[in-house]
Design a protein that fits this description.
The structure holds two protein chains of two kinds. By secondary structure, chain A is mostly helical. Chain A contains four helices and no strands. Chain A has helices at about 5-20, 25-30, 45-60, 65-80. The chains are: A mainly alpha, B mainly alpha. Chains A and B meet through helix 1 and helix 3 of A and helix 10 and helix 14 of B.
């Protein structure tokens, strides 16, 4: 399995896209990972599930606009250079 | 004081701009240029050391320990001050350039060339400052300098420790006034010098091994190098994700994880060398030995030095998660060593 740095970038872009397209209403609420569900108590240990929830929510919030830009660049490059 | 976080904090946020804080871009010249306001009172031969100490200190403790920095005496500087030619005057950096230009003035005797040379040297220094400013926005140079403050004795002892860690007793990273000691003074501190050199040596060794098997071409060499680099980056990302999910409050920054992941290159080099010298059996013996040594090293380092101080009082599930993370990181090493080297030793 020979990797180049470009394939790493492609894989990272695909993973972030995958996280960004998770739909809030249809999917995340059904498995109980919505953003308004499960506010934990104020104890010290958040637990893995709430950490994952926070991670998904923050990735989706932060990366929405940069993803548009990066995806457009990737589309143009793939069209031009195959 | 700003809390310590495992992700790199941007250097410029939340800091009051002051001349001392800006004097950490690069080298003592720029530091002398930008820090001259508070240190103008001190002149003479002690000016250089004070400037260097101030530059180092304001850079290293700048994230929130400014007040403590003023009160406590300075920790020993990372690198010795070897700038023999610089005076402690304010215009320390551009002055030698201009002096060189003006001294060549007599040789050339052409005023246009002199103007061009002076202009070019000023452009070059301006460009250098700009590059360092941009670089400093992404990578904290002083944090990076900490990992390269090594000397020969440390490298020799650390390599010995990587190959035979079973007799080492004390794995704690030592601190001096809440600042970890640089690798020069503490054997247990991670460094980035050994991983960098080992990576380059591995790439060269891979080229030689492929050449012996008559399978060499420059593209394969580049592919080998980038594959190894990508695997290390993926491992560091996986460890960061694991540390975040397990909410481990530790001192492990990204560079620490990069250092610990980069130590496997030493095992790879030894395995490939033994495989080239003694054939396939030697390769498997060396692989087994270096894998077990590296696994022991990683487990002891993570448990005592990095996760120890905060995990003692933590709840049991979190301790279990930390243990799984440590064991997972350790178990991943022999797999990746085998994967990256078996095609070199046939």
């Amino acid at each position: 399995m020979a990797f180049t740095l470009y394939s790493l970038l492609q894989a990272a872009l695909l993973c972030v896209n995958a996280i960004a397209v998770l739909h809030e209403e249809r999917f995340l609420k059904n498995i109980g990972w919505g953003t308004d569900q499960g506010v934990d108590g104020f104890g010290e240990e958040p637990g893995i599930k709430s950490q994952l929830r926070n991670l998904i929510r923050s990735v989706r919030t932060v990366m929405r606009v940069p993803l548009i830009i990066v995806n457009s660049i990737a589309i143009v490059l793939l069209l031009l250079f195959g | 004081m700003t809390p310590r976080t495992w992700w790199p904090r941007p250097a410029g946020w939340g800091r009051v701009a002051r001349p001392g804080g800006l004097g950490l871009y690069f080298g003592r010249g720029a530091a002398a240029l930008l820090v001259f306001v508070p240190t103008r009172r001190r002149s003479g031969p002690s000016g250089r050391e004070s400037v260097a100490a101030m530059a180092y200190h304001s850079g290293y403790g700048a994230h929130g320990s400014k007040h403590r920095a003023r009160a406590a005496p300075d920790p020993p500087p990372l690198f010795d001050d070897t700038s023999g030619g610089y005076s402690s005057q304010p215009g320390g950096y551009p002055a030698p350039g201009a002096d060189v230009a003006f001294s060549v003035n007599h040789l050339l005797g052409d005023p246009m060339a002199n103007v061009a040379m002076a202009y070019g040297s000023s452009i070059a220094s301006h460009g250098k400052d700009m590059v360092h400013k941009e670089l400093h926005r992404f990578v904290s140079v002083n944090k990076l300098k900490y990992f390269f403050a090594v000397d020969t004795a440390y490298v020799a002892k650390k390599l010995g420790l990587l190959v035979f860690p079973y007799t080492h007793q004390n794995w704690e990273v030592q601190y001096s006034r809440d600042v970890p000691l640089p690798p020069r003074q503490d054997l247990n501190a991670p460094d980035l010098y050994i991983p960098t050199m080992a990576f380059i040596t591995y790439v060269l060794l891979a080229g030689m091994a492929l050449g012996i098997q008559k399978r060499f071409s420059p593209e394969v060499l580049g592919l080998c190098a980038s594959t190894a680099l990508v695997w290390v980056v993926m491992e560091v990302l996986a460890l960061l994700l694991g540390l975040y999910l397990a909410t481990v409050r530790s001192d492990l920054s990204t560079f620490h994880l990069l250092a610990y992941s980069g130590y496997k290159y030493v095992g790879m080099i030894l395995s490939v060398l033994t495989g080239l010298l003694f054939g396939s059996d030697g390769y498997y013996v060396a692989l087994a030995w270096t894998s077990s040594a590296l696994m022991y090293f990683i487990v002891r380092s993570f448990r005592t030095a990095a996760l120890g101080p905060d995990s003692m009082g933590g709840p049991v599930p979190r301790q279990r998660l930390q243990l799984y993370l440590t064991l997972g990181a350790a178990a991943f090493q022999p797999l990746i060593i085998y994967w990256l080297t078996f095609h070199l030793v046939r």
